[in-house]
Amino acid sequence: MVLYMQIEEFNQKANEAIEELKAAKPKEAMIIHHDDADGLCSAAITKRALEREEVKVKTFCLEKVYTEVIEDLHSKPRQTIFYVDIGSPHADLISEYNKGRNLTIILDHHDPKPSKDPQVLDLNLEHFGFEGETDFSGATCCYLFAKALNNANQDLSYLALVGSCEIPQGFQGINKIVLDEALKNGIVQQKGKNFEITEFKMRVNSLFSKLQILGAVGYYEGGPEIGINVCLEGLSKDAKERVNALETRRKEANRRLLGRLYRERLKETEHVQWFDAGSMYAGMGVKVIGQFCSFLSYKARLIKPNKYILGFVDVPPEIPGWGKLEGNFVKGSIRVPKIMQSQIKEGKLLGAVNLLDKASEGFGIADGHQYAASVVVPIDKKHILLENAEKAIGTL
Fold this sequence. Notes:
Layout: H1 2-24, E1 28-33, H2 37-52, E2 56-61, H3 67-73, E3 80-84, H4 91-98, E4 103-107, E5 120-122, H5 138-149, H6 157-163, H7 174-184, E6 188-191, E7 194-197, E8 202-203, H8 204-217, H9 223-233, H10 237-264, E9 267-268, E10 272-276, H11 287-296, E11 308-315, E12 318-319, E13 323-324, E14 329-335, H12 338-345, H13 352-359, E15 365-368, E16 372-378, H14 382-395
Parallel strand pairs: 1-2, 1-3, 3-4, 4-5, 10-11
Antiparallel strand pairs: 6-7, 7-8, 9-10, 11-14, 12-13, 14-16, 15-16
Helix pairs in contact: 1-5, 2-5, 2-6, 2-9, 5-6, 6-7, 6-8, 8-9, 8-10, 13-14
């Protein structure tokens, strides 16, 4: 009962946002989205839903939020902008640069910060009592908004399920409601322990895995655009070949990095075990370092179960479809070994995103969840980040 009341609260806010959207009568909209499977599914849902309302859509894939990019994107007035599976942790920054110019709607599941601009509407379901780590994905939030916009968008429910495959606990909370709805409507059907997308004859988890590769590994080669098309049209022969080629490249980089770590071991501070991949993933999106850290968290012979796992990777300066960043940056991705997660839940340890927020204050931009998060910092601030992380953990 409480669950449905919370969803109804979301629907009320979504309908208010939809009224503002309709009042603006946009002919075009920009969708800014993340590059993982959840981000691609989120973009695909929102794109199809807006196109059905006869709004022309431009998608822009952004791996991380950069101040100079946000400032530029919001500099022109009278735009309609959607942030999907990205944006909530930076609603304050987005508000600062939007300055009331543009109707901006955020549909996300990462830990949010408050919006200071009444034109920046954050519909993150965490504002309604749900947890982005377990109850819903960015794609689920987008799906609920799309359904509020037009009930015909129920045929997009499979994409909410695909995006939610990143949640290790499985389909629970809102995701369980979406699953039941998709099964009832014949959008997906049970296949053993998994579910098959009826239209594409493709399993939900299989599409998720392929999108993870297209968006992250293929970030600089048009992978996100291909991924959005795959979400809506299914996996073509060309897309399948692209996935296989990209996955081969990532596996080779993973193999080389894993070999190096077994030889050299991870560096350690009192509470953090870390490594620097440098340019080993050159040509790929920086999301791959988070994927590698997740993979590493299961390597019991290599990691300590009671220390945060932190991996650095060089950030290429080019943002596809935008331009070149000023300065040199690294991305740090953090993962929490399973044994530590209960301590975070009990408030005995800092969550991943809280830790990176504190450690990068004044020079970095962090976002994520309590067990998985990331930050972009200037390349000369890596060791300061580590020092600050130890201080933050110490104060707790």
